Each structure stands twice: as structure tokens, then as C-alpha cells.
Amino acid sequence: MNALLATALDLAAAGVPVLPLRAGKVPFGNCRACAGNVCGGRPNMKTPGPCTCPNLCHGWAAATTDPNVISSPPWERAWRQAAGVAYHPGGAGLTVVDLDNPAAIAWARANLPATRTVPTTRGEHWLYQGAMQGANGVRPGVDIKSTMAYARWLGAGTGTMAALPDVVRALTAKESAPVRPAPPIAVPAQARDSQCPHRTPAYLARGLAMAEQRITEAREAVHATVYRTFLAVLSAHGQCGCLTEAHMARLFTAAQVKGESARHCTDAWTNALNRLGM
User: Fold this and answer.
1) Staple partner for 260: which of 28, 94, 159, 255, CB 3.0–4.6 Å?
2) Which residues face 99 on adjacent strands?
3) Residue 183 in domain
4) Is residue 184 assigned to a domain?
5) Do 147 and 133 fall into the same domain?
6) Which SS3 state, helix, strand or coil, does residue 237 take?
């Protein structure tokens, strides 16, 4: 049996959802039927969603503990081409603090509770028991990999795994770059202080909630999703005076939790404004 497949089956038997990685530490891409996520994708591990494709599509969301799927012909062929095994930490109830360099490791040793550690090519993975929303770049050289993310399997590591502490949960809020105010919206003067002439407050509230959800659930092409979401919100509410800086800050925050930089948020907002001629 292929060594990577054997490792994957052992992990799956222990309740760890797995998937194969290509060279470059990236998942195998979607098949033709699922290209561009036209199939509807797989929003999470417990509810596979409308896609019933037998291939290993959709990155982290394809991770599974089902040995029949892992050993099926589409997957078996992928294991022969694979360069490594990945797993979905959140699906196993885990959070990985990915420390990418010696400076990040030194920071973790000074600020985080000791836990199980796994050496990586350039740094260490610190594993905690408990899941949270993953985020990239929460501080220099530090990523959080948990729900809606994958991590390379590099061995069981050493040390006793600690419970996920509040200091790690707080990283996505406290250590990420502050949200920059979006550029001002060019709205007609007569609409600035009046009620939205064509939408109700409830419509705006629902629209913002859907926009935040769309960004939060993005599994790939996050940059494009953020831009399209900003464009949609501005198209519906950008010229009627009902959109405020507080609303924009909510969208910026959702994007930054997904790993987007404040600069990219501002650029995406500006590009959306320009696209709509505002």
C-alpha cells in the first residue's frame, strides 16, 4: 500500500479528517464538473452540501475520515501522485498555531501555554485541543489553522496537548491589523440625511448579514469573494445614504478574519467604488 495512503487511513481511524496534498503543499484542484465551484461546494464536514462528486474536490472541505472514500479509485490515484498528507484541524476538534520562523517560535514560548509541538520545515506547529475560526497573518510569522483550513501532517509531535486558551482565540481579534475606515461614499446630498428611498432598514440588515456570511464561508478565491461582496453591497446601498462607516467596518472585519490585509480591504473597496462610478 502507498505509504501516504496508509498514513491517511491511520489518521482517519483516529478521527482526523484527511486529504492528499500535491507538490507545493496545495490540495488537488476541482474536477471539470466542479470548476469554479459551480457545483455548490461543500460548506462543512458534517453537512457535505449539494456536491456529490466522488473526486477529492474543494480543498479542506474534501477532508474525510471515511476509509471507503479515502481508498476509492479517484483518491487512490491521487495518493500515488501526492507529495504529502493534510488534515482538517477543525474537523478533528483541534487548532494549529503555525509558527513560521524562529522569531515566531520565541514569541509563542513567551506568550502561549506549553502544548504539543510538531517541527516543520521552517518552524513549528503548536497543537491545542479545541476548534476556532482560522486566520492567516494574525501576527508576524503566525497563522491559525482550524476550521475551514488544512494543515500538513508532519507527525504526532511531542508534549501534552493543552486546551485551546483564550490568548490564542484572541489573536484573531487583538493581534490582527486594525480595520481601516473605508473611503467615503459619494452619495447624493439629498439622500445623505434621509431614509433609504427604495430599501427598508431590515433589507439592509439582511444584506449585510449575508455579505458577512459570504466572506466568512469563502473556501477559495478569498480576494475575489471580498471584492465581489463589496461590489454587491455598494451596488445596492452605495448611493442611497443608508450605508455607514460602521457597516463598512463590519465587512472589513469579516475580510480580515479570513486573512485579508487592511490594505487589500481598502483596495477592494476603492476598486468597487470605481467600478460603479462612485
Assistant:
1) 255
2) 124, 142
3) no
4) no
5) yes
6) helix
pTM for the model: 0.63
Q: What sign has the CA pseudo-torsion 102, 105, 110, 116?
A: negative
Q: Is residue 182 part of a domain?
A: no
Q: Where does a domain end: 175, 209, 227? A: 175
Residues 64-112 have pLDDT tens digits of: 999 999 999 889 999 999 999 999 999 999 999 999 999 999 999 999 9
- pLDDT tens digits, one per residue of 118-170: 999 999 999 999 999 888 888 889 999 998 889 999 999 999 999 999 999 98
With respect to residue 110, please indicate whether it lies within any of the assigned structural domains: yes
Contact residues for 209 (Cβ-Cβ < 8 A; gap 6+): none
Beta bridge partners of 152: 86
Query: Residue 16 belongs to what domain range?
Result: 3-84
Q: What phi, psi does 129 have (nearest 5°)?
A: -85, 115
How many domains does the chain fold into?
Answer: 3
CB 31, CB 57: distance < 8 Å: yes
Q: Which residues are within 8 A (CB) of 85 and not within 5 positions of it... i.e. 6 or more apart?
A: 4, 7, 8, 11, 18, 19, 20, 21, 152, 153
User: Identity (one letter) of the amino acid at 70?
Assistant: I
Same domain, 216 and 256: yes
Q: Is there a contact between 58 and 150 (Cβ–Cβ < 8 Å)?
A: no
Quote the cell numbers at residue 109.
514560548
Terminal-residue alpha carbon distance, the chain: 60
